[in-house]
Each structure stands twice: as C-alpha cells, then as structure tokens.
C-alpha cells in the first residue's frame, strides 16, 4: 500500500473507516479510536477530503472589492449617471477620485453603485436613523379614574390632567367605578362620561363609546 499521508482505510465490505497512524504506517497497521489495530487484506486507502472554509458574510453594504459582479450601474461622485460600467473600471474611477465604490441598490440588474466617501455616508445614515427614532412617538394609554359623585374641584383636576395627556399625544381611558348601590344608578355614570366627551370634543375624539365592564364603565378617547 502506497503511503499517501494521513489516510482513511475503507474495507471492501463498507465498514467504518479506519484512520492510518501516520504518513508511513506499516502495510496493515492502522489507528482506531483506541490505538493501533490491524486490518485485513483487501482494504483501499483514500485521502480524507478537505472542506473549504465557509465564506464569511459581511453585514451592511458591499463596497470596493467586495462588489464581485461583472458590471454595475454607476453614479459618479457628482451625481451623474454613467450607465452600465465594468466593475473594475468603476472601482478604478473611485480610487482615482480618492473615494469608495458603494453598492446602494443591490437587487437591481446590474446593481446600482455610487462613488462617494463611505465614512461620511455611514455617518449621515446613522444620524438620519437616530433622528427618525427620536421622532417616533410611542402612544401610551393613560387612565383617568372618576366616581359617579365626584365634586367639581376633583373633576377640574382630572380634566386638566386629561388635556395634558392629549397634548403629549397619548390616549386616555376614562374609568368610572361603581360601588355597592351605585350600580343601580348607572345613568349618573353615563351622564358624567357624556359631559367629559362634550368638554373634550375640540381636542379629542371618542375611540370607544361608554360601555360597562363588570362594575365599571369605560370610555377611551384619543387626541385629534
């Protein structure tokens, strides 16, 4: 048996492969999981196949030599559309300008690339994303709790808080809870919520009309 370096011995019966002990093993000495062993005649030695390492995937846009397509639709540093240009030619133009070739529309055919300063481009994109996140308003549902027999002072305090919530862009859930015998006078609660609805109509709209949930009456308002 010729020495082929570290090898795998396959038996003619197709049993479990056995690895050779070294580059120049004796004709029948092989290495198993527990040490040297001896294989019968008739085995065929084959070299273990080598697997290529996986190509690392880069996040974000492809730039410069990472753009591996024959042609690109090129926009130069002045914003002029140069049409379809060979990738190597586009890269050379970017290098001569001291800039980068950046793929901006990868799904086009051919991909659209632009010559620009990639560092400034990334900074601008990150700044835009940060500003967009700041402008996003997470709408919350604030709760205002009332009682059927609320006095005028407490009512005004609740209404001022409600107006502030609407100015901040939040919704308001008005909860009116009945206790004991108050359940027999649900009409009082309905009239109170109607009053709230009428006094907020210029800056709020009803999203959920007054309705009973157990021992409480609910109404939801949202800002206009």
Order of helices and strands: EEEEEEEHEEHEHEHEE
The neighbouring-strand order within the major sheet is: 4-3-2-1-5
Query: If you average the pLDDT, what whole number results?
Result: 79
Which structural class should the secondary elements be placed in? Answer: alpha+beta
Radius of gyration: 38 Å
What is the rounded distance between the termini?
A: 88 Å
User: Helicity, in percent?
Assistant: 25-40%
| Annotation field: number of helices | 4
Largest β sheet strand count, sense and barrel closure: 5 strands, antiparallel
Stretches where pLDDT is under 50 for at least 5 consecutive residues are 1-15, 18-22, 25-39
According to DSSP, the number of beta strands is 13
Q: Looking at the structure, what is the overall shape?
A: elongated
Strand content: 25-35%
Description:
This protein has 224 residues and is of the alpha+beta class. Helix content is 26%, strand content 32%. 15% of the residues are buried. The chain has helices at 87-96, 118-135, 152-167, 186-199; strands spanning 7-10, 18-20, 29-32, 35-38, 44-47, 71-75, 81-86, 100-105, 112-116, 141-146, 171-177, 204-213, 216-223. The chain is elongated and about 85 Å long. Residues 1-15, 18-22 and 25-39 have low confidence and may be disordered.
């Amino acid at each position: 048996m010729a020495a082929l370096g570290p090898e795998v011995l396959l038996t003619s019966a197709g049993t479990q492969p056995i690895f050779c002990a070294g580059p120049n093993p004796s004709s029948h000495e092989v290495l198993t999981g527990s040490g040297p062993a001896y294989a019968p005649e008739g085995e065929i030695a084959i070299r273990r196949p080598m697997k290529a390492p996986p190509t690392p995937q880069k996040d974000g846009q492809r730039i410069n030599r990472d753009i591996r397509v024959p042609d690109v639709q090129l926009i130069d540093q002045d914003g002029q559309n140069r049409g379809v240009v060979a990738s190597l030619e586009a890269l050379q133009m970017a290098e001569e300008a001291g800039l980068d070739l950046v793929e901006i529309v990868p799904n086009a055919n051919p991909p659209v690339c632009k010559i620009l300063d990639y560092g400034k481009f990334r900074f601008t994109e990150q700044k835009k994303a940060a500003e967009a996140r700041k402008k996003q308003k997470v709408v919350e549902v604030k709760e205002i709790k009332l009682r059927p027999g609320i006095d005028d002072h407490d009512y005004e305090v609740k209404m001022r808080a409600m107006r502030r919530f609407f100015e901040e862009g939040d919704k308001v859930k008005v909860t009116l809870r009945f206790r004991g015998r108050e359940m027999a006078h649900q009409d009082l609660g309905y009239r109170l919520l109607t009053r709230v609805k009428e006094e907020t109509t210029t800056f709020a709209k009803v999203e959920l009309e007054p309705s009973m949930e157990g021992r409480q009456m609910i109404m939801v308002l949202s800002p206009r």
